[in-house]
Every structure is written in C-alpha cells, then in structure tokens.
From TrEMBL:
Transmembrane segments: none annotated. Pfam families: Anti-Pycsar_Apyc1. The gene is rnz. This is Ribonuclease Z. It catalyses: Endonucleolytic cleavage of RNA, removing extra 3' nucleotides from tRNA precursor, generating 3' termini of tRNAs. A 3'-hydroxy group is left at the tRNA terminus and a 5'-phosphoryl group is left at the trailer molecule.
C-alpha cells in the first residue's frame, strides 16, 4: 500500500513552550508532501522528521494567526537556499498575499522559483486542490478570524488484475484498462466473464481531516462523516470551557463529541494550551466521550 501518513511538526497553541512547537503538520500521500499550517520553527521540525524539502508539494494555511503562519518566510528562504526550482503554491484565506509578498520580495527576491498564493472562501466547503492522488476540500470553522479546516480524500485506485484469470481467458491487452475500471469481458463467443472473476478490489481510499482552530461546531459533521483520522483542536479542558468559548476554541470533550457525531474511525487532539504542563488530562477527558483518541506530539508519525 502506498504512503498515506501524517507527521506532526507542531501541536501547541499561540505560545511556544519547551513541550510543543506552534501548529504544523505534513501529510505524505504517495510521496508527495502537503504541509498544513506553518508556525514558527516549522522548518527545523521538518528536518528533525527527516522529511525531504524537495517533495513538498503545497502548503495549506487555515487562518492568519501567527502561530499558524509565522514560519512561512523562513521555510521559503530555506527552499531557495536549497536550490528549489519548482514553483510552490500556498492555499490560504484572503490577506496572506498582502502580508507575505513584501517579505518574499525583500528576503527572497533571488529565489529561482515562484510562490503562488491561492485564496479560498472560508465560509464555503469546496474543493481547492485536485490531482490524480487526492482532493482537498475546505471545511468552514468557527473562530475569531476567518478560518477553515481541510479534508484530504485519497482517490480510489483501480482494481487489481488477476494474472492467472487474464491469461486463462486470453484477454487482449487493449481490454485491460477497462477491466481495471470495472468492465466485464465478453468473449468472441458472446460469453460474459464478470469483472469479479478477473480482478480483486484495490485498497480502500483513505481520508484525513484537519480542524484547527474552532469553537464547537456541529455544522462540520456532515462534511467529515466517517473519515479515517480526524485531527481536532482541543485547546482547553472542560473546567476552562468559558475561556474556550470566549477565544473561539474547543475543549477536549467537545472535540470528542464532534468525532462521535461524525462517526470517524480515530481522532487525534492537539493545539494544546501552554497552561497545561501535562496533556494527559486532555486525553482523559476526550476518551470519556470518544475512546479511540490519541494525543498529537512533535515527532509522531501516524500511518493511515
């Protein structure tokens, strides 16, 4: 099975601590790297995770709070120093162009590649990226500033041919492509050989959702229904629910309730407030509602 794995580069909230870096993740889909948010220090964590800068395909910025985008200019500068020539695209809410472009023009004017910035409407759920391997759909979130999550959905691969059956029925090469797509085979005598006799199903397509930052919001449930892995911010414990509401964040149990309502297979919580020296308290609260929950942590590589 080809790669579909998540690297956590940072899972803290606004204030960096000795425990956590600001938000950033990398999703590896069939050896193409998709970065999600880029807080301060991201490029160092990228190196520590032994990821390859040359494989970085696109960057997705959820919103324009510094702990989610302060690392961009440093990363772009490093890509230039490493000799990157291929353009890179950043997908973001409106406003990033005005913030980032002057920095690029000043610090990275000699870079041999272009930084393209594509904006999306955080109030809509729409496909903003699509290739042969994956599509990326935005998820409107509820925060103090315009903010969106991202749904990464792998494309279903074609069925696998059964070589022995292909040979037995003497099927011409010209028909194999259609058979992989689900077609039956009809012999010269008119006999129908069912596709199920000629192929085995490919591995199920995988899916990942990133939701940070957001207050409790049941409107996202239909969009994320049944995904393999949900990353949902869990900045606060229930005791600090009033603080969560005031700042547009979620508690661990609220995140778990979203996972439960959406019937996701697994949840990962992150974006931890610096006020908690031990994140186990967040995990315990989440697991009371949704048992299949894990903690994000720098250096974690989760394979789907």
């Amino acid at each position: 099975m080809e790669k579909f794995e998540l690297d956590i580069l940072g899972c803290g909230s606004a204030t960096p601590t000795t425990l956590h870096n600001p938000s950033s993740q990398v999703l590896n889909i069939r050896d193409k790297l998709f970065m999600i948010d880029c807080g301060e220090g991201t490029q160092l964590q990228f190196r520590r995770s032994k990821l390859r800068f040359g494989r970085l395909n696109s960057i997705f910025i959820s919103h324009l709070h510094g702990d989610h985008c302060f690392g961009l200019i440093g990363l772009i500068s490093t890509l230039g120093l490493l000799g990157r020539t291929g353009d890179i695209t950043i997908y973001s809410v409106a406003g990033l162009e005005e913030i980032l472009r002057p920095e690029i023009d000043f610090f990275c004017k000699d870079n041999p590649f272009q930084v393209k910035i594509e904006t999306f409407d955080p109030k809509k759920s729409e496909v903003i990226y699509d290739d042969r391997s994956v599509s990326v759909t935005t998820i409107p979130l509820k925060h103090r500033v315009p903010c969106a999550g991202f749904l990464f959905r792998e494309k279903q691969k074609e069925a696998h041919l059964i070589p022995e059956m292909i040979k037995f029925h003497n099927i011409p090469i010209r028909d194999l492509a259609n058979i992989k797509k689900g077609a039956d085979f009809i012999t010269e005598e008119g006999k129908v050989i069912p596709n199920s006799h000629l192929t085995t199903p490919s591995e199920p397509a995988r899916s990942y959702v990133y939701c940070s930052d957001t207050a409790y919001n049941e409107k996202i449930v239909p969009i994320i229904e049944g995904v393999d892995l949900l990353y949902h911010e869990a900045t606060f414990v229930d005791e600090d629910a009033a603080r969560a509401k005031a700042t547009g964040h979620s508690t661990a149990s609220q995140a778990a309730q979203i996972a439960k309502l959406a019937n996701v297979k697994k949840m990962m919580i992150g974006h931890f407030s610096a006020r908690y020296p031990d994140n186990q308290i967040l995990l315990d609260e989440a697991r009371k509602v949704f048992p299949n929950t894990i903690l994000a942590n720098e250096g974690l590589r989760e394979k789907l």
